[in-house]
Write a structure and sequence with these properties.
This protein is mostly beta strands and 127 residues long. The chain has one domain. The chain is built from two helices and ten strands; from the N terminus they run ββαββββββαββ. Strand 5 and strand 6 form a beta hairpin.
Length: 127
């Protein structure tokens, strides 16, 4: 079991969860068919961020991470999970300090849906 932070844009929440290190478990948690893992800096620490590899191609995608660098216009969309990795490149659980760093860098992102303003969780990242 790996301890991770799940940012769920559909349910509009962020929580610490434990997941089995299984591909099908990742698909289920992210709500997707293909995953990618990108390395991003959050609050000065490097994390492996698991994303829906086809997220930007889907209709109605919701931003879940955005760059804080004004010269970089990068976003991640859909549900996200955050991990560390070891020297062999394998995913490992987050520490308490890692979780605190991620949570400190989450704020809201507003979207307009059917005339209603909705607030979604969003994390600030450096590429």
């Amino acid at each position: 079991m790996l301890r991770t932070v799940l940012l769920d844009v559909k349910k509009r929440n962020v929580k610490v969860v434990e997941v089995d290190d299984e591909l099908n478990e990742y698909y289920k948690m992210l709500g997707c068919d293909f995953i990618d893992i990108v390395s991003r800096s959050i609050g000065g620490k490097e994390f492996d961020v698991m994303v829906d590899d086809e997220g930007l191609l889907k209709n109605g995608c919701i931003v879940s991470a955005r760059s804080v660098d004004p010269e970089i216009n990068e976003v991640l969309v859909g549900n996200l999970m955050f991990f560390n990795s070891n020297d062999e490149g394998e995913l490992v659980s987050l520490s308490d300090d890692d979780i605190e760093t991620i949570m400190r860098n989450i704020d809201g992102y507003a979207t307009l849906s059917n005339g209603l303003l909705e607030i979604h969780p969003c994390v600030s990242i450096w590429s």
